[in-house]
Amino acid sequence: MTDYPVRLLTKMLDIYSPSGKEKEISQFLYEEMRRHGFKVRQDNVGNVIGEAGRGSPVILLCGHMDTVTGFIPVRIESNKIYGRGAVDAKASLAALIIAASAFIEEKTAKIVVASVVDEEGASKGVKNLLKEKVAVDYAIFGEPSGVDKITIGYKGDLRIEITCKTIGGHSAAHWLYESAVEKAIEIWNEIRKISSSATKMGGNSGHFYTLDSCLTGIRGGKGNSTVPSKCQIILDFRIPPNLSVAQVINEVHKVIEEYQKTNPKVSVKVKVIDFVEPFEADAKSPVVKALSRSIREVTRRTPMLLRKTGTGDMNIFGRETHVPVVTYGPGDPALSHTANEYIVVREYLDSIEIYKRTINKLIESHESA
Amino acid sequence: MKTAKCPDCDSELSVSEEVMQGEILSCPCCGLELEIVTVNGGTVEVKELVLEGEDWGE
Fold first, then answer.
1. Homologous superfamily, domain A3-154+279-368
2. Topology at the third CATH level for domain A161-276
3. Beta strands in A68-184 (DSSP E)
4. Chain A residues contacting B, CB < 8 Å?
5. Which of B33, B49, B57 lies at the smallest CB-CB distance from A308?
6. Mutant choice from A19, A294, A300, A308 vs B, greatest count of B C-beta within 10 A
7. A307 vs B contacts (CB less than 8 Å)
8. Which of B 1-30 lie inside 8 A of A, CB atoms?
């Protein structure tokens, strides 16, 4: 009974599939789902979508096929399966496919398994699902929360590039000029103060409810005898659910306007590189309830609801569709993106049973509602 | 003894007289873990125990 799940996952891990190179794994999963009896199609960005059963409710199970870069040779050792994506998030995707395959003949629900591309990139896969307006009643995203934990919230993310320009010159007479590198750091020191004031506004403690910012890149100066005239800094903001991306951008502009009052010769330009809005799911939704009960039944432990400081495809999908949604999957998230990525076999197998029971409970509660 | 009602299976639970807000108990019928929300005279209000935490990732 445990052979097939292990074989499926090890095969998926053997196929190296960093973002943008999901063709081989998508072909494999297409065939695998077709063999199980799913009605399978591939959309125009490469997502593989399999449908089991028919009728209502429609339950979306969404997992990503891509991983970060860096192949890890696949091996099984001490009941752990090692490989790139073992945690993030091929174990979740394999478990979702196996769980859904139990509902091929279901007549009172349709289970849609979406194996999406590019979650580790720009989320092209989930954005295309939204574009296609796949109508669903409930959604579960397969990402590592841990077998007895459920992710109900993610912070938003905003990455901006700030370019500072000054008039540079010979560093032997640096007092005649303004260093763009020094000015950029001064601006960063002003911008980071937004975080502490925004946190006070929110009134909640903990990193999830805090606006965090981090200087993740700096480019400027050549280290020769020249006062640099150009510097670019990259800032990464992690946005709590009580704030929006627009509010943070507005605060950044205010800080820069204020800074330029005392530094009129410094040119400052802000460019938004990328953003994802924050999202917090309803902790009392039917899908959280069904998943919580299933976790209790299978693991005999009390489930924990997690709010994560990262972001996931649930942010984009949950905000747009407003359907009850949750993120759940086996694996220790701390192992994601590391060279030591592994999944404990027992946890992976338990998650298959938990997904199955969750689907059954959603069908039952939908019928009685 | 005080009484409470399980929010899941509707069973009536007997709760100790000394029960305090925040205490944890299990429903003897369905096994659901419950948290004491309020103690008002002989009536005790309970809710499903929910643990909450923070993590990072994705």
1. Zn peptidases (3.40.630.10)
2. Alpha-Beta Plaits (3.30.70)
3. 75-77, 80-82, 109-116, 138-142, 149-154, 156-165, 169-170
4. 88, 119, 143-145, 149, 151, 154, 206-208, 283, 292, 296, 302-312, 327, 333-334, 336
5. B57
6. A308
7. 52-55
8. none
Kindly report the number of other CB atoms within 10 A of residue B38's CB atom: 10
**pLDDT tens, N- to C-terminus, chain A (369 residues):** 569 999 999 999 999 999 999 999 999 999 999 999 999 999 999 999 999 999 999 999 999 999 999 999 999 999 999 999 999 999 999 999 999 999 999 999 999 999 999 999 989 999 999 999 989 999 999 999 999 999 999 999 999 999 999 999 999 999 999 999 999 999 999 999 998 666 555 556 678 989 999 999 999 999 999 999 999 999 999 999 999 999 999 999 999 999 999 999 999 999 999 999 999 999 989 999 999 999 999 998 989 999 999 999 999 999 999 999 999 999 999 999 999 999 999 999 999 999 999 999 999 998 877
Strands (E), A221-359: 226-227, 230-239, 267-276, 279-280, 304-308, 325-327, 342-344
Q: Is A137 a catalytic residue?
A: no
Distance from CA of B18 to the nearest CA of A (A): 24
Q: Is A292 in Cβ contact with B48 (below 8 Å)?
A: yes
Q: Do A308 and B56 touch (CB under 8 A)?
A: yes
Interface contact flag, B57 A304, Cβ < 8 Å: no
Contact A269, A324 (CB under 8 A): no
| Residues of A whose CB is below 8 A from B52 | 304-307
As a whole number of angstroms, the distance between CA A154 and CA B55 comes to 10
In chain B, the domains with their CATH numbers are 2-48 (2.20.28.160)
Query: Does this complex have an ipTM over 0.90?
Result: no
Backbone angles phi and psi of A85, in degrees to 5: 95, 0
The two tokens of residue A94 are 């394999």
